[in-house]
């Protein structure tokens, strides 16, 4: 019987050593995982701070752009009648003067000057005197 008690004690001792080793391994894994969790939390905090900083920068930029848009003056709309520009061109106003006085683009002013300017009126009168018309063949163009 003493032998059986010794065998039982030996088995119990071996079981206790195995359980102790298993518990030690589990504790090491828990400690390792806790360290990883601590690192992840730390990384998350730093990324969160970076996101907050970027958000603050974005809000400041939006406020700046909004201020610029609000401070930008409305474009002036020059509403001079086209008839007045045509009349002025017929009286000899230059293309540059049509642009500055009536807010026309350079192309618009040139077209008005070409069609209605003093030179165009004189050329039209010359054609009328010579019997020509606006739809007929113009020898000077050909």
Write a concise synopsis of the structure shown.
The chain has about 140 residues and is mainly alpha-helical.
SSE layout and pairings?
Blueprint: H1 2-71, H2 82-90, H3 95-102, H4 106-116, H5 118-130
Helix pairs in contact: 3-4, 4-5
What does this structure look like?
This protein folds into two domains: 8-72; 82-130, no CATH class. The longest helix is centred in the N-terminal third of the chain and has 70 residues, at 2-71. The protein has five helices and no strands. The chain is rod-shaped, with a radius of gyration of 47 Å. With 142 residues, it is mainly alpha-helical. The model is unreliable at 133-142 (pLDDT under 50). The chain has helices at 2-71, 82-90, 95-102, 106-116, 118-130.
Please outline the major beta sheet: none
Low-confidence runs of at least 5 consecutive residues: 133-142
Number of domain units: 2
Instruction: Give the mean pLDDT.
Output: 82
Count of individual helical segments: 5
List keywords for this structure.
142 residues, 78% helix, 5 helices, single chain, mainly alpha, rod-shaped, 2 domains
């Amino acid at each position: 019987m003493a032998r059986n008690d010794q065998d039982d004690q030996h088995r119990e001792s071996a079981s206790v050593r195995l359980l102790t080793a298993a518990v030690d391994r589990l504790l090491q894994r828990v400690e390792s995982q806790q360290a990883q969790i601590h690192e992840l939390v730390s990384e998350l905090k730093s990324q969160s701070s970076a996101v907050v900083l970027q958000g603050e920068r974005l809000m400041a930029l939006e406020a700046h752009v909004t201020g610029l848009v609000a401070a930008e003056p409305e474009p002036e709309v020059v509403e001079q009648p086209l008839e007045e520009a045509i009349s002025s061109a017929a009286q000899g106003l230059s293309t540059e003067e049509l642009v500055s006085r009536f807010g026309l683009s350079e192309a618009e002013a040139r077209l008005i000057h070409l069609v209605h300017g003093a030179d165009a009126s004189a050329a039209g009168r010359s054609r009328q005197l010579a019997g020509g018309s606006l739809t007929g063949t113009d020898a000077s163009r050909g």
